Amino acid sequence: MSVYGLERISVPVAPPGFADDTADSHYVPAPCQVACPVGTDAPSYIGYIWEKKYAEAFEAITATNPFSSICGRVCDAPCEPACRRESSDGAVQIRNLKRFVMDQLGADAPTTQFEVTRPESVAVVGSGPAGLTAAFELCKSGFSVDVYEMTDRLGGTMVWGIPQFRLPTGIIEEDINRLQRQCKGLTVHLNTPLGSGVSLEELKARHSAVLLTIGAWWGKPMGIPGENHPKVEDGVSFLRRINAGERPQMPETVVVVGGGDVAMDACRAALRLPGCKQV
Q1: pLDDT tens, position by position, 39-92
Q2: Which letter, b or e, does each residue of 120-147 get, where b requires 16 or more Cβ atoms within 10 Å of its Cβ?
Q3: pTM, two decimal places
Q4: What CATH number is attached to the domain comprising 92?
Q5: How many other C-beta atoms can be found within 10 angstroms of the C-beta atom of residue 245?
Q6: In the chain, how many domains are there?
Q7: CA pseudo-torsion sign 61, 62, 63, 64
Q8: Are residues 152 and 191 in contact, defined by beta-carbon separation less than 8 angstroms?
């Protein structure tokens, strides 16, 4: 599929024919691939798209990222500023090309099945992107994995922290369902919080290892007077309530402090709620 292996974390290893320059052959990893946190092989899948080999493009996209449909919509695309064309006629729209492939094949494409080949089992506490990616990689390596999730849905912040108008529930389910189909040794325990649902000691007794991926479920206080006022709410809690289905009555004017992703999602969510006319 690709000219380099998929074992690397960031900078890919040069293929055998390009290990040195004795034959005046040089290997330079693509900046877009190096910039990607999971090392997605963007050059290969863009090339496959050009050749209309969409199944091969799907394979290249999903080889290192079990959440490719999601990333086609909400990834901040660090690959694009790193694109070599950025300094000439503009970066290739890498994320949109990924979305193009995943919209066509993400739900139904055949996938590799990961069988259990090892006797050890691992407990993963939390089912956000970190926990499920860890489960994916562990299952790929042959381990049995039990995921313990405190809510009634897999996905963590992807489900509870990103508004559905930006990341539809069906897209999240598409990636998670594909992951579950691939991972034969994966068992999911919903509504099982650490502490009241299962203790850490119980997990240690049941499994060979325990991985805690409990996420960042709490807003960050600003440390300024007035932030504990009843009408002040942190953005993380606000978005979680909205994604849980609440539709609170808002004042005519809503003030959002901040300018990051959470703040912008809060702005857009507030404008969709009854009562709010400006943010």
Answers
A1: 999 999 999 999 999 999 999 999 999 999 999 999 999 999 999 999 888 999
A2: ebbbbbbbbbbbbbbbbebbeeebbbbb
A3: 0.84
A4: 1.10.1060.10
A5: 6
A6: 3
A7: positive
A8: yes
